[in-house]
Design goal:
The chain is α/β, with parallel strands linked by helices and about 300 residues long. The chain contains 10 helices and 7 strands. A 7-stranded mixed β-sheet has the order 1-7-6-5-2-3-4, with helices on both faces.
Length: about 300
Amino acid sequence: MSTEAFSLPSVTSGQAPARIVVGVYLRSLRKSQGMTLPGAARALAVTKSALSRWEHAQSPIDPRTLRLLLHLYGVAPQHIRYLLSQTPPQRHTRGKTAGIGEHDPFDQWPDAACLEAWARYVAVMHTAGEVLQYAPVRFPPGVRTEAYSRAVLDQVWSPQDEPGAQMPGWVHTVTKVATRRTVLVDEALLQRPIGGPEVAAAQLRHVLRLVRSPQADAPRILVLPVVRAYAFADLPDAAEVTVHGHRMVTGAGLTPFYGTGPAADVIATGLRDAAARACGQEESCARIERAADAMDRRTAS
């Protein structure tokens, strides 16, 4: 089992997830337009420190200014109206809650704006400085081969979790930060021939190289044996991420999902518990290699 402890801060006291995501969105849009922080601030007659705080979800933005910023960055009117309807009121402050049944109404946000929502999800995952992610049915972006990535995106109802040709142009300019990333691979995933046995075998060999990589920025990939049900099992591609100092839970089902508060803390605690129970590096390598050998035999048969 993995020996690394995951004693991360709670996500209960975090900022509302919509504010965190909108902050990432504003920063990504500004950079895609080639605008500096002072330049965008001058265009709106606000201070650059205020704009920086909004981009990092350190203070709430009023609806009028949010509308003007989104308009400045060329966001379509329907998407502006949608975001204005989804973000908490400017004076909203998270309530102090005691348990999972007593959550703030803005603690959870399923972003239902189609490709624009998926582009925001990609931006959040690229911006996150720390990620602890569960991979139950497909390997996540960043650890995929090109052939495997095409096979995943061709699946019916597959989440658009990486920048594709149909994505809004701005998302292709989002720079990936140096991320401390741990991927918990469900052992059942090792048996799934996504794209066919040949593609799946190559994907497993690729993952094996990543697991064995000595590079400091390589993702930490651990196999999670199927021995128990975890609290995050119902949230597709559940992850705990740190974005601009804020911790929140994300998911990628029919729409991107974000959460903070007590319910999200249960998911985050489950992810950390699973990480502690996962196979160590040596055993993970052995199980992935056995699965790759099995896929090779299926290819040859």
